[in-house]
Amino acid sequence: MLKPLFAALALTAASLAPVSAETIRVGMSGGYFPFTFTEQDKLQGFEVDFMNAIGEVTGDEIEFVTMSFSGQVGALESNRIDTIANQLTITPEREAKFVFTQPYVYDGAQVVVREGNEVGINSTDDLSGKSVAVNLGSNFEELLRGLPNAADIDIRTYESNIEQDVALGRVDAFVMDRVSTAQVIAKSPAPLEQAGQPFSEIRNALPFRNDEAGIAMRDKVDAAITTLKENGKLAEISQKWLDADVTRPAGEAAPAN
């Protein structure tokens, strides 16, 4: 009498299991607070929780691979990782190489200066004649070099520690995304402040290689992101790390749960 019941339970379990569970190798720097950083030898942050939540939906293993931000695109191209979770912004140049999921963070580029703003920067026009730090290979480097007054700005690229050099007065400002700069200023003892308003809206998403396997993985992960948006999990992760929901465009209402 019990055999049919066990058979039914086994069939149910099999039907709930992922069709083809696999390992998703995720590249990240581990040095971009509060999105991906290491504290007490533990890799953590928004991106870590986000990718683990995706794995819970798809049934896949998530393997984090830490490396410098500037090396992540090359690692994705050479199949050493499957995607990048490091607040990568969608740009036409990147869309020509990769296929992206839907955006999962909406943000803006923000100028940050030493507290007191003695250098007098209140807009991108004020960056002329100033030294400005930016992470090497980031979208913010592209945005700076695309400004009308870019030729008048001393743009300095960094692999890490740009906050400290601004706090110590070695450079006049740095540019990063609005939400992470707010968290850095709130949690760091370094004397820093945001200068002016964000000067560009950016949409961040996960890139995958533009081949059959990459597109299939993108589609699976994209469906998981939709689930996380609809069930409120993505907004919950955003509130945990950023004290705000930045997972949908400004003015778009959250779905009713």
Give the helix/strand layout:
Layout: H1 2-16, E1 23-28, E2 31-32, E3 36-39, E4 42-44, H2 46-58, E5 61-66, H3 72-77, E6 83-84, H4 92-95, E7 98-100, E8 105-114, E9 131-135, H5 139-145, E10 154-158, H6 162-167, E11 173-177, H7 178-187, E12 192-195, E13 201-204, E14 207-209, H8 212-230, H9 233-242
Parallel strand pairs: 1-5, 1-6, 9-10, 9-11
Antiparallel strand pairs: 2-3, 3-4, 7-14, 8-11, 8-12, 8-13
Helix pairs in contact: 2-8, 2-9
Give a description of the structure.
The protein has helices at residues 2-16, 46-58, 72-77, 92-95, 139-145, 162-167, 178-187, 212-230, 233-242; strands at 23-28, 31-32, 36-39, 42-44, 61-66, 83-84, 98-100, 105-114, 131-135, 154-158, 173-177, 192-195, 201-204, 207-209. It is 35% helix and 24% strand. The protein is of the alpha/beta class. The strands form four sheets. Strands 8, 9, 10, 11, 12 and 13 form a six-stranded mixed β-sheet that branches. It has two domains: 23-104 and 205-242, 3-Layer(aba) Sandwich (D-Maltodextrin-Binding Protein, domain 2), CATH 3.40.190.10; 106-202, Periplasmic binding protein-like II (D-Maltodextrin-Binding Protein, domain 2), CATH 3.40.190. The longest helix has 19 residues, at 212-230.
